[in-house]
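User: Here's a chain of 485 residues. Predict its fold as tokens.
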Amino acid sequence: MSSLEDLKQIRLAKLELLKKAGMDPYPASVPRDLSLCDARIQFTEIEKSGMMMSISGRVMAIRGQGSILFYVLDDGTDIFQAVVKKDVLNAKLFELITNAVDIGDIISVTGSFFSTKKGEQSILVNSWTIASKSLLPLPEKWHGLVDPDEKLRKRYLNFIMEPEARKIFLKKAKFWKLTRIFMENAGFMEVETPTLEITTGGAEANPFKTHHNDYDMDVYLRISIGELWQKRLMAAGFDKTYEIGRAYRNEGSSPEHVQEFTNLEYYWAYANYEDGMNLTIKLYRYLAQEVFGTTKFIYRNHNFDLANEWNRIDYTEEIKRQTGTDIIGATDAEIKKRLDNLNVSYEGTNRERLVDTLWKYCRKNITGPVFAINHPVLVAPLAKSVPDNPSIVQMFQPIIAGSEVGRGYSELNDPIDQRKRFEEQQKLIDKGDTEAMMPDMEFVEMLEHGMPPTCGFGFGERLFSILSGKPLRETQLFPLMRSRK
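Assistant: Prediction complete.
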């Protein structure tokens, strides 16, 4: 047997000791009057009262020998010391806790609060019971889980051994909670739109495909948070809507890209992209200050302050400034040559993909916070054109630390123009572009009934991961992992 299997057999024997003593190793409930965090907060009051209290937690360390033992408990809210004395605890229970309880077990202890000579807040155990007997040991204390893959695959162990990792997700919950509060205070109504779609809309990405058995048809997991659906709501007379939900894109992985993620999208009738930029600045500063307590951050050697003025950069001019390439006049061959000279790999050979790849190269060098504006129409099929220059669109991209952390438009509501743009996207699909936007002619029909001027905007988990200073996968509770063969 392996050494791990040997340890498991030893623990199984201890489980039998518990059973023989009449103690259920996996009871449905155990005594617990308060969390360990509350125990620490209320310690002085409880100590003075002399009340007997029950607390529970996972055993993270055991010290001492003979007639006195010290157990460090952790319940996820805090840690707390339990002191077990032979002359206080029932002799049978003292022997049982000594012989049957291991590091990793979850126990409940009842007793009185007191401070040790060193001032350590503690509970003097009068009785105890098992809450869950662990059959496998925790990772070695000082090294823990060192394999990054194992940390993500066995999140439960990662969080047990690294409380700091747990705190990221407390912040993330607060991040989305405060996003909702901000949107509600700004007068937006939360909505739910389909996650299964016949045609994917609202972004350019390769979707996941599945089959609807009852209707006997293929459907797709959405790649945006209901963009074309929320615009239908604008036409229907809803003034301000937003949705926070999961999106799915069947694409590659990177520190800033995963296949399943949470985004927010909002739509605002009778507003334009200028209104959207102003609201975005307020939202991002609010989240930074309320969640992280600062507007200053460092990410990948980029130092930025969201409280600074948000300048605007011209998409075409920025590419020209950084690479010397004029994407308006350059041929596809010239753009490819420039990408090759920059040692930038690219997939697809249509002009939209080539220009977008060149932009992404440039974007990495922008610290921000800035808004990229004046994008060419070919990279934004759903955005309204600038009135005096129909070759560019009213689109804005907030950029921080070299990354796009949102995208918004004055939404295109001209059905004739939208139909033409969808037809261009269909040509790209016919040529094999898997990321081109699927035409939705029912959406065009909606526009033919009339949709008011609208601003739409979306952002997602990438913003949180950058402000946290962590790769995106590390800020997901359970990122998708390759199956083990």
